[in-house]
Design brief:
The protein is an alpha+beta fold. It has a single domain, classed as 7,8-Dihydro-6-hydroxymethylpterin-pyrophosphokinase HPPK (Alpha-Beta Plaits), CATH 3.30.70.560. 29% of the residues lie in helices and 25% in strands. The chain is built from four helices and seven strands. The strands form two sheets. Strands 1, 2, 3, 4 and 5 form a five-stranded antiparallel sheet that branches. Strand 6 and strand 7 form a beta hairpin.
Length: 161
Protein backbone atom coordinates (compact mmCIF):
# COMPACT_ATOMS: atom_id res chain seq x y z
CA UNK A 1 0.00 0.00 0.00
CA UNK A 2 1.37 3.41 -0.98
CA UNK A 3 0.58 6.87 0.32
CA UNK A 4 -0.13 9.73 -2.06
CA UNK A 5 -0.50 13.37 -1.05
CA UNK A 6 -3.02 15.23 -3.19
CA UNK A 7 -4.03 18.87 -3.31
CA UNK A 8 -7.52 19.55 -4.61
CA UNK A 9 -9.06 22.90 -5.36
CA UNK A 10 -11.04 25.09 -7.64
CA UNK A 11 -12.55 28.53 -8.06
CA UNK A 12 -15.62 27.98 -10.25
CA UNK A 13 -19.14 26.85 -9.44
CA UNK A 14 -20.23 25.72 -5.98
CA UNK A 15 -16.67 25.49 -4.66
CA UNK A 16 -17.52 23.86 -1.30
CA UNK A 17 -19.73 21.21 -2.90
CA UNK A 18 -17.07 20.46 -5.51
CA UNK A 19 -14.37 20.04 -2.82
CA UNK A 20 -16.66 17.58 -0.99
CA UNK A 21 -17.51 15.71 -4.21
CA UNK A 22 -13.86 15.46 -5.25
CA UNK A 23 -12.96 14.13 -1.78
CA UNK A 24 -15.65 11.45 -2.04
CA UNK A 25 -14.67 10.48 -5.60
CA UNK A 26 -11.03 10.17 -4.52
CA UNK A 27 -12.15 7.95 -1.64
CA UNK A 28 -14.12 5.75 -4.06
CA UNK A 29 -11.61 5.58 -6.93
CA UNK A 30 -8.12 6.12 -5.56
CA UNK A 31 -8.05 4.87 -1.99
CA UNK A 32 -8.68 5.41 1.68
CA UNK A 33 -8.36 9.01 2.86
CA UNK A 34 -6.25 8.75 6.02
CA UNK A 35 -5.77 12.49 6.61
CA UNK A 36 -7.67 15.53 5.43
CA UNK A 37 -6.89 19.22 5.94
CA UNK A 38 -9.46 21.89 6.51
CA UNK A 39 -10.51 23.88 3.44
CA UNK A 40 -8.35 26.95 2.77
CA UNK A 41 -9.41 29.97 0.70
CA UNK A 42 -6.63 31.65 -1.27
CA UNK A 43 -6.26 34.28 -3.94
CA UNK A 44 -5.46 33.09 -7.49
CA UNK A 45 -1.78 32.43 -8.10
CA UNK A 46 -0.04 32.87 -11.44
CA UNK A 47 -0.95 34.66 -14.65
CA UNK A 48 -4.67 35.01 -14.05
CA UNK A 49 -6.52 38.06 -15.25
CA UNK A 50 -9.94 38.92 -16.56
CA UNK A 51 -11.27 35.71 -18.09
CA UNK A 52 -14.21 35.31 -20.44
CA UNK A 53 -16.01 38.42 -19.27
CA UNK A 54 -15.32 37.96 -15.55
CA UNK A 55 -14.61 41.20 -13.75
CA UNK A 56 -12.68 39.47 -10.99
CA UNK A 57 -11.34 35.94 -10.74
CA UNK A 58 -12.81 34.12 -7.73
CA UNK A 59 -10.61 32.92 -4.91
CA UNK A 60 -9.68 29.24 -4.81
CA UNK A 61 -10.67 26.73 -2.19
CA UNK A 62 -7.97 24.12 -1.50
CA UNK A 63 -7.67 20.99 0.62
CA UNK A 64 -4.84 18.51 1.10
CA UNK A 65 -5.51 14.78 1.36
CA UNK A 66 -3.28 11.88 2.32
CA UNK A 67 -4.57 8.75 0.60
CA UNK A 68 -3.54 5.11 0.97
CA UNK A 69 -3.75 3.48 -2.44
CA UNK A 70 -3.03 0.29 -4.31
CA UNK A 71 -2.77 2.26 -7.57
CA UNK A 72 0.46 3.21 -9.30
CA UNK A 73 1.36 6.91 -9.63
CA UNK A 74 0.20 6.95 -13.28
CA UNK A 75 -3.06 5.23 -12.35
CA UNK A 76 -3.63 7.90 -9.66
CA UNK A 77 -2.97 10.56 -12.31
CA UNK A 78 -5.44 8.91 -14.71
CA UNK A 79 -8.16 8.72 -12.04
CA UNK A 80 -7.47 12.31 -10.94
CA UNK A 81 -7.87 13.61 -14.50
CA UNK A 82 -11.12 11.63 -14.87
CA UNK A 83 -12.48 13.10 -11.61
CA UNK A 84 -11.54 16.62 -12.72
CA UNK A 85 -13.40 16.11 -16.02
CA UNK A 86 -16.42 14.61 -14.25
CA UNK A 87 -16.59 17.69 -12.03
CA UNK A 88 -16.56 20.00 -15.05
CA UNK A 89 -12.94 20.80 -15.76
CA UNK A 90 -12.16 21.57 -19.39
CA UNK A 91 -8.49 22.04 -20.19
CA UNK A 92 -7.90 24.78 -22.80
CA UNK A 93 -6.21 23.49 -25.94
CA UNK A 94 -4.22 26.62 -26.77
CA UNK A 95 -3.67 29.58 -24.51
CA UNK A 96 -1.00 32.17 -23.85
CA UNK A 97 -1.75 31.83 -20.12
CA UNK A 98 -0.58 28.94 -17.99
CA UNK A 99 -3.24 29.25 -15.26
CA UNK A 100 -7.00 29.24 -15.72
CA UNK A 101 -10.08 29.25 -13.55
CA UNK A 102 -11.49 25.76 -13.06
CA UNK A 103 -14.13 23.93 -11.08
CA UNK A 104 -11.62 21.30 -9.90
CA UNK A 105 -7.90 20.69 -10.04
CA UNK A 106 -6.19 17.65 -8.48
CA UNK A 107 -2.42 17.77 -8.09
CA UNK A 108 -0.25 14.83 -7.08
CA UNK A 109 2.23 16.32 -4.63
CA UNK A 110 4.05 13.27 -3.21
CA UNK A 111 3.86 9.52 -3.78
CA UNK A 112 5.67 7.73 -0.94
CA UNK A 113 9.32 8.80 -1.40
CA UNK A 114 9.26 8.28 -5.17
CA UNK A 115 10.85 10.65 -7.65
CA UNK A 116 9.17 10.50 -11.07
CA UNK A 117 9.95 12.69 -14.07
CA UNK A 118 8.03 11.69 -17.18
CA UNK A 119 6.40 13.87 -19.86
CA UNK A 120 2.99 13.52 -18.16
CA UNK A 121 3.90 13.26 -14.47
CA UNK A 122 6.45 14.87 -12.17
CA UNK A 123 6.59 13.81 -8.52
CA UNK A 124 7.28 15.49 -6.17
CA UNK A 125 5.27 18.34 -7.63
CA UNK A 126 7.96 20.65 -9.08
CA UNK A 127 6.61 23.95 -7.69
CA UNK A 128 4.99 22.84 -4.45
CA UNK A 129 7.76 24.30 -2.26
CA UNK A 130 7.06 27.77 -3.73
CA UNK A 131 3.32 27.81 -3.02
CA UNK A 132 1.83 28.68 0.34
CA UNK A 133 -1.57 27.40 -0.86
CA UNK A 134 0.01 23.93 -1.16
CA UNK A 135 2.24 23.97 1.89
CA UNK A 136 -0.27 25.27 4.47
CA UNK A 137 -2.84 22.50 4.03
CA UNK A 138 -0.08 19.92 3.56
CA UNK A 139 1.64 21.01 6.79
CA UNK A 140 -1.64 20.45 8.63
CA UNK A 141 -1.72 16.74 7.69
CA UNK A 142 1.94 15.79 7.21
CA UNK A 143 4.29 18.43 8.69
CA UNK A 144 7.20 16.00 9.20
CA UNK A 145 7.18 14.47 5.71
CA UNK A 146 10.61 15.02 4.13
CA UNK A 147 10.76 16.10 0.48
CA UNK A 148 12.79 13.38 -1.31
CA UNK A 149 14.84 15.88 -3.35
CA UNK A 150 15.04 18.98 -1.16
CA UNK A 151 15.49 16.98 2.08
CA UNK A 152 13.35 19.44 4.02
CA UNK A 153 10.13 18.75 5.87
CA UNK A 154 6.86 20.29 4.75
CA UNK A 155 6.96 22.42 7.91
CA UNK A 156 10.48 23.67 7.08
CA UNK A 157 9.48 24.56 3.51
CA UNK A 158 6.47 26.48 4.79
CA UNK A 159 8.60 28.44 7.28
CA UNK A 160 11.07 29.31 4.51
CA UNK A 161 8.42 30.88 2.26
Amino acid sequence: MSQVALLIGGNQGDRHRLIDEATELIRNRIGSVVALSKVYETEPWGDFGVESGEQKVKNFLNRALLVETLLSPHEVLHESLAIEAELGRVRPKLSSKRYHSRPMDIDLIFFDQEVIDTPDLTIPHPRMHLRRFVLEPLAEIMPDYSHPLLHKTVEQMLKEL
